[in-house]
Amino acid sequence: LEGFLSELLFDDIKIVEVLESESNKDAPEDKSNRVDIKVKNKKGEIVIIEVQSNNEADFFQRVLYATSKTVCEHIKTGGKYRDVVKVISVSILYFNLGEGSDYIYKGSTNFLGFHNQKQLRLNSKQREAFKKEYPEELFPEYYIIKVNNFNKVAKDPLDQWMYLLKNSA
């Protein structure tokens, strides 16, 4: 898992803890949330991994809910918002979600100027506090991996992982 995530995220990922993958309900009417794998890496980020073979029209909303629920569960009552954990969502899909021919998609929240289309940066105090340059580095990241779109030719280490995902039993 560390090897796969290191290739996908272009970072040396070290998992320090495997977390409970089922969320707690605060009230009986709350929707529960269960992901396949939930881990914490050495940076304190939470990575949730979902493997899905059944086509779900509302899968994007499911991913959004899982990510949001994870953010909420990992801040203590009375905690500071600066302690909101970074969440990375990785969806490994064996069905066709959306329209697109690539096999890996990355989504993030970035803020572009309405008139000049320039990306908003954190100010110097924020950059010092968070050791980040842009707000999108604080927000969840989403990776959609459409395994069926992989063309079976491994050109790099990430493609080797794709080959394994597509061809392993």
**Largest β-sheet summary:** 6 strands, mixed
Distance between the ends: 17 Å
Instruction: Using the CA coordinates, give the radius of gyration.
Output: 17 Å
Nearest-integer average pLDDT:
89
Structural class: alpha/beta
Encode the helix/strand succession as letters. Answer: HEEEHEEHEH
- What portion of the residues fall into strands of 2 or more residues? 15-25%
Tally of alpha and pi helices: 4
Please describe the topology of this protein:
Layout: H1 2-9, E1 15-18, E2 37-41, E3 46-52, H2 59-73, E4 87-93, E5 104-107, H3 124-130, E6 141-146, H4 157-167
Structure description:
The protein is an alpha/beta fold. 24% of the residues lie in helices and 20% in strands. The chain contains four helices and six strands; from the N terminus they run αβββαββαβα. Strands 1-2-3-4-6-5 form a six-stranded mixed sheet, with helices on one face. Strand 2 and strand 3 form a beta hairpin. The longest helix is centred in the middle third of the chain and has 15 residues. The chain is globular, with a radius of gyration of 17 Å.
